[in-house]
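>> received
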Amino acid sequence: MDPRARDDDGDGTAGGGPVGAALPLVAGVVAGLVVEVVALVVVTALYAVGTAEGDAGSVPLALGSALLALGLAALLGWCALQLARGRQRGRVPALVWQVLQTLVALQVLLEESTGSGTWWAALGVAALGGAVGVALLTRAAGAALPHGREGETLL
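>> returned
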């Protein structure tokens, strides 16, 4: 590690954000994650409002789904923050989420009729998840994020 680099949080890595030519790629990943966080918060609100209005078939299931969406939003927010700070530790959970949501969206695309509102929403989710996932897997994204302690590669 460069002795001139500052370790702001004591984790053995120099902070300061992503570095190199892939900075726009990492910024795009962070923006995609922020879009997903906002979508999950909206889903949480829809579950809460639907439950309060008596639209939920099962109140415990609706509240559990709302809590799950809120927890995923918090996790993705943390991942976005870590990536924006130039740390790799947010890559793996973000990548796992991209794979899971893309697979579910593709399944919805196969089962819904083309052109329905659900089909278009699933297409958007699959496109966003695929784009963010591929960007997270690129060598450029890995190179833009500093390595861990003593040159250890975290992904």
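>> Confidence is low (pLDDT under 50) at residues 1-14.
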